[in-house]
UniProtKB/TrEMBL annotation:
Organism: Anaeramoeba flamelloides
GO MF entries: flavin adenine dinucleotide binding; flavin-dependent sulfhydryl oxidase activity
Descriptive protein name: Sulfhydryl oxidase
Cofactors demanded by this protein: FAD
Domain annotation ERV/ALR sulfhydryl oxidase: ranges: 47-147
Protein's UniProt keywords contain Oxidoreductase: yes
SUPFAM superfamilies, sorted: FAD-dependent thiol oxidase
Its EC number(s): 1.8.3.2
GO cellular-component term (any): mitochondrion
Keyword rRNA-binding annotated: no
C-alpha cells in the first residue's frame, strides 16, 4: 500500500511504502519528475543530431510513411505525399543532401499512385543514395515488410 498527503498529490509525488514499483508507476514517476522538477532538462545539454543521425531518422520516417500509405490513395493523399517530398527537398537541413534530393526528384518524378509504387520509388531513391555513399543496396521487393512487418524477431 502507499500513502500520500494532499500536497504530495498536487505535486505528483507519491510516497510508496512498497519496495518495488510497477512499470506503470515508474513511468508515471519519471513523467512527474520531468514535469515538476525545476532542474534543467537533459535535452537542453544534448548535442544536436549529426547529419548521419538526421539521415537515418529521415529514412525511417519516409519508409514508414510509404509502408502505411493507402493501397489506393485518393488524389488529395497523392498530392500530400508529393508535396511532402518536395518540401523535404527544399527544407532538408543538409544543403548537399537537399540538392541531391531535388535533382533526384526532377530526374525521377515521385510515384505516389499506389502503396506499392510509392514503396518501390522510395526504396529505389534510397538505393540511389546508398550507391552514392558506397553502401549496400536493399532488395526493394522487401521494402514494405521491412518497415511494416511483421518480423519474427521484433517485439
Amino acid at each position: 500500500m502507499f500513502t500520500f498527503s494532499f500536497d504530495d498529490l498536487i505535486l505528483g509525488q507519491y510516497a510508496y511504502k512498497q519496495k518495488k514499483e510497477c512499470k506503470s508507476c515508474q513511468q508515471l514517476n519519471t513523467l512527474q519528475r520531468l514535469l515538476f522538477d525545476d532542474r534543467p532538462k537533459s535535452f537542453v545539454t544534448e548535442c544536436p543530431p549529426t547529419i548521419t543521425e538526421i539521415g537515418r531518422n529521415t529514412w525511417s520516417v519516409l519508409h514508414s510513411i510509404s509502408a502505411y500509405y493507402p493501397k489506393n490513395p485518393n488524389k488529395e493523399q497523392q498530392k500530400q505525399a508529393l508535396n511532402f517530398l518536395i518540401s523535404l527537398s527544399e527544407l532538408y537541413p543538409c544543403s548537399k543532401c537537399r540538392k541531391h534530393l531535388s535533382n533526384y526528384l526532377k530526374k525521377h518524378p515521385p510515384r505516389v499512385e499506389s502503396n506499392k509504387a510509392f514503396n518501390i520509388y522510395l526504396c529505389q531513391m534510397h538505393n540511389s543514395i546508398n550507391k552514392y555513399l558506397k553502401k549496400p543496396q536493399f532488395d526493394c521487393s522487401q521494402a514494405t515488410s521491412r518497415w511494416k512487418g511483421p518480423w519474427k524477431n521484433c517485439k
